[in-house]
Amino acid sequence: MSKFRKTRWQMIIAVCWITFFAIQSAAGKDDAQTADKPDVPENRLYIDPQSRDFAANPELLDRILKDPHGYFRFINVLFSEEVCRRFSTKLPNSPSLNLHGDAHIEQYAITDLGRGLTDFDDASSGPGYLDLLRFGVSLNLTCQLNNYPDSAKIAFNEFLRGYRDALKDPTFEVPECALVQTIRSK
Protein backbone atom coordinates (compact mmCIF):
# COMPACT_ATOMS: atom_id res chain seq x y z
CA MET A 1 0.00 0.00 0.00
CA SER A 2 1.39 3.40 -0.89
CA LYS A 3 2.27 5.92 1.78
CA PHE A 4 -0.32 8.28 0.25
CA ARG A 5 -3.15 5.73 0.71
CA LYS A 6 -2.10 5.04 4.31
CA THR A 7 -2.02 8.75 5.08
CA ARG A 8 -5.33 9.29 3.29
CA TRP A 9 -7.28 6.77 5.34
CA GLN A 10 -5.64 7.91 8.57
CA MET A 11 -6.82 11.41 7.71
CA ILE A 12 -10.30 10.09 6.96
CA ILE A 13 -10.40 8.46 10.42
CA ALA A 14 -9.27 11.75 11.96
CA VAL A 15 -11.93 13.71 10.03
CA CYS A 16 -14.63 11.27 11.15
CA TRP A 17 -13.41 11.47 14.72
CA ILE A 18 -13.45 15.26 14.68
CA THR A 19 -16.85 15.36 12.98
CA PHE A 20 -18.59 13.28 15.60
CA PHE A 21 -16.95 14.93 18.55
CA ALA A 22 -17.83 18.34 17.20
CA ILE A 23 -21.24 17.78 18.80
CA GLN A 24 -19.54 18.30 22.16
CA SER A 25 -19.18 22.00 21.50
CA ALA A 26 -22.97 22.28 21.44
CA ALA A 27 -23.12 20.64 24.87
CA GLY A 28 -20.65 23.01 26.51
CA LYS A 29 -16.93 23.43 26.90
CA ASP A 30 -14.93 21.87 24.07
CA ASP A 31 -12.17 19.39 24.86
CA ALA A 32 -9.91 21.08 22.31
CA GLN A 33 -8.19 22.79 25.23
CA THR A 34 -6.74 19.45 26.30
CA ALA A 35 -4.62 19.41 23.14
CA ASP A 36 -2.41 22.07 24.75
CA LYS A 37 -1.64 19.85 27.72
CA PRO A 38 1.61 17.89 27.34
CA ASP A 39 0.12 14.68 28.82
CA VAL A 40 -2.67 14.52 26.21
CA PRO A 41 -1.47 13.36 22.77
CA GLU A 42 -2.78 15.23 19.75
CA ASN A 43 -4.46 12.12 18.32
CA ARG A 44 -5.11 9.44 20.92
CA LEU A 45 -6.45 7.08 18.29
CA TYR A 46 -3.38 6.95 16.08
CA ILE A 47 -1.38 3.76 16.41
CA ASP A 48 1.85 3.71 14.46
CA PRO A 49 2.04 0.29 12.77
CA GLN A 50 5.80 0.38 13.37
CA SER A 51 5.15 0.44 17.14
CA ARG A 52 3.84 -3.14 17.14
CA ASP A 53 5.47 -6.39 16.12
CA PHE A 54 3.18 -7.92 13.51
CA ALA A 55 5.76 -10.51 12.38
CA ALA A 56 3.69 -13.36 13.82
CA ASN A 57 0.49 -12.05 12.23
CA PRO A 58 1.19 -10.19 8.96
CA GLU A 59 -2.41 -10.77 7.85
CA LEU A 60 -3.58 -8.58 10.73
CA LEU A 61 -1.26 -5.78 9.65
CA ASP A 62 -2.52 -6.10 6.07
CA ARG A 63 -6.12 -5.88 7.28
CA ILE A 64 -5.32 -2.82 9.42
CA LEU A 65 -3.58 -1.02 6.57
CA LYS A 66 -6.06 -2.04 3.87
CA ASP A 67 -8.68 0.61 4.61
CA PRO A 68 -10.08 2.83 7.37
CA HIS A 69 -12.54 0.17 8.57
CA GLY A 70 -9.67 -2.23 9.27
CA TYR A 71 -7.89 0.42 11.30
CA PHE A 72 -11.13 1.47 13.02
CA ARG A 73 -11.80 -2.12 14.08
CA PHE A 74 -8.23 -2.47 15.34
CA ILE A 75 -8.57 0.58 17.61
CA ASN A 76 -11.90 -0.60 19.05
CA VAL A 77 -10.72 -0.56 22.68
CA LEU A 78 -8.84 2.74 22.30
CA PHE A 79 -11.90 4.28 20.64
CA SER A 80 -14.16 3.12 23.48
CA GLU A 81 -11.80 4.48 26.12
CA GLU A 82 -11.50 7.83 24.35
CA VAL A 83 -15.27 8.19 23.86
CA CYS A 84 -15.88 7.42 27.53
CA ARG A 85 -13.14 9.84 28.59
CA ARG A 86 -14.57 12.66 26.49
CA PHE A 87 -18.17 12.12 27.55
CA SER A 88 -17.61 11.26 31.23
CA THR A 89 -18.05 14.86 32.37
CA LYS A 90 -20.72 15.73 29.78
CA LEU A 91 -22.96 12.74 30.58
CA PRO A 92 -21.77 11.61 34.03
CA ASN A 93 -24.93 9.71 34.97
CA SER A 94 -25.27 7.63 31.82
CA PRO A 95 -26.60 4.21 32.72
CA SER A 96 -24.64 1.11 31.86
CA LEU A 97 -26.38 -0.85 29.10
CA ASN A 98 -25.76 -4.01 27.14
CA LEU A 99 -23.63 -2.98 24.17
CA HIS A 100 -22.87 -4.60 20.84
CA GLY A 101 -19.28 -3.54 21.48
CA ASP A 102 -18.24 -3.43 17.82
CA ALA A 103 -21.13 -1.67 16.09
CA HIS A 104 -20.15 -0.72 12.56
CA ILE A 105 -21.63 -0.85 9.09
CA GLU A 106 -19.94 -4.15 8.22
CA GLN A 107 -21.82 -5.78 11.13
CA TYR A 108 -25.20 -4.78 9.66
CA ALA A 109 -26.82 -7.80 8.04
CA ILE A 110 -29.83 -8.10 5.76
CA THR A 111 -31.45 -11.55 5.61
CA ASP A 112 -34.81 -13.14 4.88
CA LEU A 113 -35.45 -13.06 8.64
CA GLY A 114 -34.84 -9.34 9.01
CA ARG A 115 -32.04 -6.84 9.38
CA GLY A 116 -29.79 -5.72 12.18
CA LEU A 117 -26.41 -6.05 13.82
CA THR A 118 -24.58 -9.38 13.91
CA ASP A 119 -21.39 -10.70 15.50
CA PHE A 120 -21.70 -10.06 19.22
CA ASP A 121 -18.28 -11.43 20.20
CA ASP A 122 -17.27 -7.99 21.56
CA ALA A 123 -20.52 -7.50 23.49
CA SER A 124 -20.04 -5.74 26.79
CA SER A 125 -21.74 -3.18 28.98
CA GLY A 126 -21.24 0.55 29.13
CA PRO A 127 -22.85 3.85 28.19
CA GLY A 128 -25.24 3.60 25.23
CA TYR A 129 -23.62 6.49 23.40
CA LEU A 130 -20.59 4.27 22.81
CA ASP A 131 -22.37 2.02 20.27
CA LEU A 132 -24.16 5.02 18.75
CA LEU A 133 -20.96 6.95 18.13
CA ARG A 134 -19.09 3.91 16.91
CA PHE A 135 -21.81 3.16 14.36
CA GLY A 136 -21.95 6.85 13.44
CA VAL A 137 -18.22 6.98 12.75
CA SER A 138 -18.61 3.84 10.64
CA LEU A 139 -21.40 5.48 8.64
CA ASN A 140 -19.17 8.50 8.13
CA LEU A 141 -16.27 6.34 6.97
CA THR A 142 -18.51 4.50 4.54
CA CYS A 143 -19.83 7.74 3.07
CA GLN A 144 -16.30 9.17 2.77
CA LEU A 145 -14.89 6.04 1.14
CA ASN A 146 -17.74 5.85 -1.36
CA ASN A 147 -17.40 9.51 -2.35
CA TYR A 148 -20.58 10.64 -0.58
CA PRO A 149 -19.06 12.94 2.06
CA ASP A 150 -22.11 15.23 2.04
CA SER A 151 -24.33 12.28 2.95
CA ALA A 152 -22.48 11.40 6.16
CA LYS A 153 -24.31 13.87 8.39
CA ILE A 154 -27.67 12.98 6.83
CA ALA A 155 -27.03 9.25 7.34
CA PHE A 156 -26.03 9.75 10.97
CA ASN A 157 -29.04 11.98 11.68
CA GLU A 158 -31.38 9.40 10.11
CA PHE A 159 -29.75 6.64 12.16
CA LEU A 160 -30.26 8.67 15.35
CA ARG A 161 -33.85 9.55 14.37
CA GLY A 162 -34.71 5.87 13.90
CA TYR A 163 -33.04 5.02 17.20
CA ARG A 164 -34.96 7.79 19.00
CA ASP A 165 -38.28 6.74 17.43
CA ALA A 166 -37.71 3.13 18.50
CA LEU A 167 -36.97 4.26 22.07
CA LYS A 168 -40.24 6.21 22.15
CA ASP A 169 -42.25 3.26 20.81
CA PRO A 170 -40.68 -0.22 21.15
CA THR A 171 -43.11 -1.59 18.54
CA PHE A 172 -41.87 0.93 15.97
CA GLU A 173 -39.94 -0.56 13.08
CA VAL A 174 -37.85 1.73 10.93
CA PRO A 175 -38.89 1.30 7.29
CA GLU A 176 -36.27 -0.25 5.06
CA CYS A 177 -34.23 2.31 3.20
CA ALA A 178 -33.82 2.11 -0.58
CA LEU A 179 -30.38 0.51 -0.25
CA VAL A 180 -31.74 -2.35 1.87
CA GLN A 181 -34.58 -2.86 -0.61
CA THR A 182 -32.07 -2.99 -3.46
CA ILE A 183 -29.94 -5.57 -1.64
CA ARG A 184 -33.01 -7.70 -0.87
CA SER A 185 -34.10 -7.69 -4.50
CA LYS A 186 -30.86 -9.36 -5.65
Describe the structure.
With 186 residues, this protein is mostly helical. It has one domain. It is 51% helix and 9% strand. It has eight helices and four strands, in the order αααααββββααα. The protein has helices at 3-21, 23-27, 58-66, 68-74, 76-87, 129-145, 152-168, 178-185, and strands spanning 96-99, 108-111, 114-117, 124-127. A two-stranded antiparallel sheet has the order 1-4. Strand 2 (108-111) and strand 3 form a beta hairpin. Helix 3 (58-66) packs across helix 4 (68-74) and helix 6 (129-145) runs antiparallel to helix 7. It is globular, with a radius of gyration of 18 Å.
Short synopsis of the structure:
Helix content is 51%, strand content 9%. The protein has 186 residues and is mainly alpha-helical.
The first-to-last residue Cα distance is 33 Å
Outline: globular
Query: Helix count?
Result: 8
Widest sheet: strand order? 1-4
Radius of gyration of CA atoms, rounded to a whole number: 18 Å
Query: Mean pLDDT score, rounded?
Result: 75
Query: β content, as a range?
Result: 5-15%
Number of strands: 4
Structural class: mainly alpha
